[in-house]
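Reply to dn_fold:

You asked what the input looked like. This is it:
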Amino acid sequence: MRKIDPDTNRFRNIVRGKIRENLKQYVSQGELLARQGKKVVSVPLPQIDIPNFRFGDSQQGGVGMGDGEVGEPIGEEQGPPGAEAGDQPGEHVIEVDVSLEELAEILGEELELPRIEPRGTESVKVEKDRYTGINRNGPESLRHFRRTFKAALRRQIASGSYDPKNPKVIPVREDRRYRSWNTKQVPQSNAVIIYMMDVSGSMGNEQKDIVRIESFWLDTWLQSQYENIETRYIIHDAQAKLVDAHTFFHVRESGGTKISSAYNLAKELIQKEFSPVEWNIYPFHFSDGDNWGGDDTAQCIRLLQEDLIPASNVFCYGQVKSAYGSGQFIKDLREGVGQDEKVLVSEINSRDEILPSIKTFLGKGC
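and this is what came back:
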């Protein structure tokens, strides 16, 4: 272990502790979304004093010494003086890159989320190369230097050409050893997340921001549990459309709400692309609870009972509070399919309730 490793590990533990301490703030405010890279997130951590160089008083001359009065501006004129100097210490902030995998681990620890036991792992096979032995032939990039050295040493000792006083070991072609591999089929867990969101006029920017923040954390956890994960986005008012992620979170539409259109589209998507035998399926639907009428709600319940719930690991419905939404749909869901353990519902009245909503959806480990 290098001398710096204990200090590095101690600093990483401090960082993890600070992230856990501020996790609710990160979740409710969505700070991390704008700081997300491909596989890492830049996390702002306050109140960590970072060592830095500070210049002391110097009695020697140097650059900048010469004629002039103390405080006289150099170059451009200074503006009028502002408020008096403060007497309180400033806040020290450092940005630390944290992998999404580590962020998911912190989320799981904080919310006490159980590990997911995927289904369908015996049906999906992928080919993976595993190094299993040593051969005398192979590409130079896979040459095993230690084995090559030992083979050359043995040969020189056996032939009597090895001189302990001048211990040179020079491998020849017959001494070279190479790592070999076998290609095996191994099970792989596949998952698809299907996000559905009501984009009718009653769903404003605040409601969509809540959905965007929550989906980021749902993605982060589920991606840590599966080797291969796909994401699909469905928006709906009176009609449903399959869209990309940017459209999903930024589209602004109006009109009525017909939730069954989204459930029908999700059903068709599963039938065409994601067989429940091979895929772990996670539909998440977000709405303010308004629907077109009782007939459409009855159709939604039928689609859930006959198609979506049987095909899914869990079906999650999050109802985001809106000043214009009636909130009736969550009551209808609880009455119609609420007894099914695969149906998870959550009311999200504000950003502060995003974290409990995530625990509701992921806390069963399905």
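The two ends are 39 Å apart (CA to CA).
Hope that clears it up.
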